[in-house]
Amino acid sequence: MNVDVAGLRSIAREHAVVVAALLSTVALALVFAVALELVPGGSLPRASDAALGAIPHVNAVVSLAAVGTIAVGVRFARRGEYGRHRVAMLASTALFGTFLVLYLYRVAIMGPNDFAGPATLERFLYLPVLAVHVTLAVVCVPLVVYALTLAATRPVRDLFDTRHARVGRVAASLWVVSFSLGVVVYALLYHLY
């Protein structure tokens, strides 16, 4: 099977919003299918209890690393170091992908975690922080995918004529907040209670 990569890139270039919307829809459908326990955990190979137990800790480190790579990527863009910006943002995307695969795998196998702290803390701290974290994560997906689609289909000089910088600034800001709140959720679930 021969794939016309240049043709696909041209289509994606001309229809970046549609491509980003389709990719985001597929990605979010998968996330919600796992989160709502529509994917049977028994259909996946089960890792050891130690590996499953390590996932939240690994994901906290991944989240902190992503905050760092996003911040560095933004700094590189502001300095006009676009090659380094690209590397940092691709690293951020890879970290996000790693986080998501590990998180969804653990949720599919074990189900979501329950908060073990006091009910008032759950109601007034944990659930609001979790809600903002999840909402921002969901909002970030189409923004990040759109910014990546623009970057993947154009040379750097052509990106200045697109919404890449504007969308990227919003996506990066929301992404950092979402990752940071994810670390707060982690601390509440695994260290405080």
Brief summary of the model shown:
This protein has 193 residues and is mainly alpha-helical.
Key terms:
single chain; 193 residues; 7 helices
- Please outline the major beta sheet: none
Sequence stretches where pLDDT stays below 50 over 5 or more residues? none
- Tally the helices: what do you get? 7
Broad structural category = mainly alpha
Strand content: under 5%
Shape call: globular
How confident overall, as mean pLDDT?
94
How many beta-strand segments? 0
The helix/strand order is HHHHHHH
Number of discrete domains: 1
Distance between the amino and carboxyl termini: 53 Å
Q: What integer value in Å does the Rg equal?
A: 18 Å
Helicity, as a percent range? over 70%
Organism: Halorarum salinum
InterPro entries: DUF420
Keywords: Membrane, Transmembrane, Transmembrane helix
Protein name: DUF420 domain-containing protein
What does this 3D model show about the protein?
- The structure is a single chain.
- Helix 2 (16-35) runs antiparallel to helix 5, helix 3 (49-79) packs antiparallel against helix 4 and helix 5 (119-152) packs antiparallel against helix 7 (164-192).
- Helix content is 81%, strand content 0%.
- It is mainly alpha-helical and 193 residues long.
